[in-house]
Amino acid sequence: MPSGIKGHLAEVRKRHPLRNTYRETMAKLGVLDQLAVWTTAHVGTMGFFLVILAWTAIWLSWNFLAPSNLKFDPPMGFVFWLFISNVIQILLMPLIMVGQNIQGLHAEARAEHDLEVNVKAEKEIEIILHHLEQQNDLLVAMLEAQGLKIDEVLTEMEELRKHQARSS
Fold this sequence. Notes:
mainly alpha
C-alpha cells in the first residue's frame, strides 16, 4: 500500500478511536448511582426471584404450620408479611427506575459510539474504494498501452509477412 493510503487510514483511526462506553459511563457515576445500577442488574435475576420465593414460602409455611405460640404473623391476614413486602416494593421501584435511567444513558452512549464506528468504517471504505479506483484506472491505462504496443507489433509482423511473401 502506498504511504498515502496508510496516512489517510491512520488519520481516520486517530480521529475516531475505539472506546469502551460501559467503562466511560460507569466512571462518571457516583456511589448511589452505582448502587442503583447494581440493584437493577441483580433484582432482575432468577436468583433474586428464588430468594423472594423462598422467603415467602418459609414465612407463610411457618405461620400456617408452626405451633400457635410460635406464629408471629397470623394466617389469612399476614399483615406483617404484607407490610415488609410493600416496603421492599416501594424502595425497589424508584431504585430500579434510577438504575434503568442510567442503563438508558449507557445505551445512548453505546449507540453514539456505534455511529462513530460506522462513520469511521465508511470513511475507511471510501479511502480504500478511492485507492482501488486509482489502481483500476492505472491498470486500464497500462492495458490500453500494452494493447497499442501489441497492435504495433502485430502490424509490423503483418508487414514483415507481406514483405517476405513478395520476396519469395
